Structure formats: structure tokens, C-alpha cells
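Lab notebook, bench 4. The sequencing result for the construct came back, and we need a structural model before the next group meeting so we can plan mutations. Quick request posted to the team channel:

Model the 3D structure of this chain.
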Amino acid sequence: MAYALARPLLFALEPETAHAATLKLAEAARRCGVLGIVAPRVPEAPLNVMGVDFPNPVGLAAGLDKNAAHIDALAALGFGFIEVGTVTPRPQPGNPRPRLFRIPRARALINRFGFNNVGLDAFLANVAAARWRGVLGINLGKNADTPAEHAADDYQTGLEQVYAAASYVAINVSSPNTKDLRVLQERAALDALLARLAATRERLADRHGKRVPLVLKVAPDLDPAQIGDIADAVRRHRIDGVIATNTSVAREAVERLPHASEAGGLSGAPIRARATAVLDALARALAGEVPLIGAGGILSGSDAAEKVAAGASLVQLYTGLIYRGPALVAECVDAIAARARR
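Done. Here's the predicted structure in C-alpha cell form:
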């Protein structure tokens, strides 16, 4: 109810300004001790995925809290896990503003942020300052000025530095907003990257005395051959999970709507079917051997249950929160639990 009242005011602001204002309001409410009171109660629905105990299967996708600066406030909304980032080794400003656009008639967003973030050192200081000790995913990317042939250096640096702080680490090779990043999804490049990160993880597991799961985040704009290649690489290098999916470069579902021609990644309701189709194809290719996290176009509990039916063990929200607010978290947990009972 509170978000329904606030949304028209937030939507009157420029989207990125509204994004920052929402996070500041959530922080203020947390400090006053009222955020947990006004947020809908989320039922317990524990499960173990990738060797990690999740209090419920509904998480926050990367991108909303890029700098890990609002973990405690977001945790009060009842998420079963929170993924922060994308973080790159060095700070970078991202693409020029404006770089976030709403398409309200389609319940969608287009963003071209370009991995704007404070860099690993400040990011990890924010993680250390958070009091919440739930399941934390850390999403890694490469710096925009790092050539594709040296991208593995950035991911290895990120993995080494975040390893001790992460419940799992997500490898983001699928954002459309960093030049040549999606080249890393191609067979040879992905094989080389995952081989290096898997070897690095084994060394880190010995050093830290714990094996942190590695998760690959892929695009919704994949053809069947690419999906097969990704599944093979994930199996070969013992990657622990796949997030399906990131944002889309396709525009068919929003053609002729205001802002539809803006460059960037499309998210929200228009990519639900596309993202779910990739999820389903990966589930079939991996035959239950690797857990999947469903993301893309979840704006209702039934959308979340659909992802689980397609093969997801966990789901993630982002754009749905912008349009529906925190009530969506509990709605999705309830819908997934109801499906399990059936």
C-alpha cells in the first residue's frame, strides 16, 4: 500500500533520480526502524541450492544495488538472497546520462548504465559495513577499457578479492552495455574464461577453507547452438549455477512505444517469454545437473512460478519491483510454495 502511494511521485522523477531517491528513502526507513514494519511479511520457505541454505527462493537481481551500499535496507524487504554489483576492478562512471528509461505501457525498462560502480575496494568496504549476514551474491564484470582479450584478468582479480565475502559469485558476460562483453559468451572465449576462473576458485577454496559457488549470467538473446555450447562449458568446468537471464537487445515487444528505440538492455514484462524460453532450453540441455536461477520479466507470483516450472530453483527480481513494489517478494514466495504443494 505504501509503495502504491509513493509510485506516482517516484515516476514523476527522472528514472535514475527516482532510483537513487527510493534507495535513500529505504535507508531512512530502516534507520527509523519502520522499514521492517511496513514491508509485507515474507513466509519462510527454506531450500538448499548449490550447497547454500536459502531462507526462501526469491532474490534481488544485480543492478539495483550496484555498489553494495544498501544491503541492510534491501534485506528488510524479505529477500531470500541479495545479489549486488556489477562491480569491476577499477571504479568507472558508466555511460553518460540519461541512461535509464521507463516504458510504463509495457511495464518495462531500458538501461544502458555500463557497469557504473565504485570499484572493488570501496565496494568491499560497503559489504563489510553491512550488518546483514544472509545469502549474498556478488556480480563481477570487466572494466569498459579492458580489451576483450584481457577480460579474464579482470574477472580473476574480482574473484580473488570478493571470494571471502561472497555466498556465491556471479560472472556477468551478458550485459549489452559494455562493448564486446557478450563476445565472452561465445564457445572458445567462454571455455577459456571459465577454465581460468574454475582453476582460480580451486586455489581460493584451499586458501579460505570454503568452496564458494560460481554462477554464470547469460543473455536472453541466445540461439540453440549458443545455449548448447554454454551448457557444455558449464558442465566441463563444474560451474555451480546459471542465471537466465540478463536484459535483451530485442525490441519487437515494445516497437513504437516511447523510448523503445533507446540503446541498452530491455527488461520487464516484454522479455518474460524470451527469458523463460532460454531458461527452459538450458534446463533441458543440463538435464538437472546444474541449478538455474530464473530472472527476466517477473511481475507477478504466477510469473515466478512459471520460471520454476521451466526449471529454475531460485528466481530474481528487479524491474518487477519498480512497477509492483516490495509486495511482489512475498507474492512470489507464496506462488512458488503453492506450486510445490500442488
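The chain has one domain: 2-341.
Will bring this to the meeting.
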